[in-house]
C-alpha cells in the first residue's frame, strides 16, 4: 500500500492520486538494473589473470566461463614453444611447474628417448589453457568466498594471488642459454664410445712357415 503524505490515507500501489484528498502521490523510483553476474565475474577474472586477459578469456569461454567446466581443445603457444614448466611457473601454477620440470627428465631417463621432451611440450600446448582455467576458477572462488567490505582490497587480493611472476622470464632465458651450450658441447664431443660403430676386426695374418 502507498501512503499519502498529506492525509496519511493508504492507497493502492499503482495509484497516482490519493482517492481521499486528491493529493498527487509520490512515484516510487524503479530499482536500478542489476549488473549481470557474467559481467561481474569477467571483471574478477580479468583482475586475476592480469597480462593478456582478453586472450585467455576468449579460450575460457569455450570451457564454460561461469558454468560447469568442460574440456575443449585449444592451443597455448607460449607453453609449447618455451620450456613448459617455466610458463606454469610464470603463471604461478607451482604444482604443475614441478610436474613439467620433473616429468620430461624422468621420462627421458626411463625410456632413453630424447623425443620425450617434445611429447611433454605438445601435452602442455594442448592442455595449458584448460589447466590455467581450472586454476583461475578455484583461486577466484576461494578469494570471493571471503567477506570483503572493501572492493579495492578484494582486487588487490586477486592481483596478488594471480597475475604473473616477471622474474621467471630471466629464468627461461638462463635455461635456454644452458640448453644451447649443452647442445654445442654434445656436438663438439661427438658420439660416446657406446654410440660409435664397432670397428671391424683386422684379418689375422697368415702364420709364417718355419
Task: Quickly list its features.
210 residues, two-stranded antiparallel sheet, 2 strands, rod-shaped
Overall, the morphology is rod-shaped
The helix tally amounts to 8
Biggest sheet character? 2 strands, antiparallel
* Strands side by side in the biggest sheet: 1-2
Strand content: under 5%
Q: Over the alpha carbons, how many angstroms does the gyration radius reach?
A: 33 Å
Mind explaining what this structure looks like?
The chain is an all-alpha fold and 210 residues long. It has one domain (37-189). Helix content is 54%, strand content 2%. It is built from 8 helices and 2 strands, in the order ββαααααααα. The protein has helices spanning 37-49, 53-60, 77-81, 84-90, 94-111, 116-144, 151-161, 168-189, and strands at 2-3, 10-11. The chain has a two-stranded antiparallel ribbon. Strand 1 (2-3) and strand 2 form a beta hairpin. It starts with a strand and ends in a 21-residue tail after the last helix.
Structure, briefly:
Helices cover 54% and strands 2% of the residues. With 210 residues, it is mainly α.
Q: How do the strands and helices of this protein lay out in sequence?
A:
Elements: E1 2-3, E2 10-11, H1 37-49, H2 53-60, H3 77-81, H4 84-90, H5 94-111, H6 116-144, H7 151-161, H8 168-189
Antiparallel strand pairs: 1-2
Helix pairs in contact: 1-2, 1-7, 4-5, 4-8, 5-6, 6-7
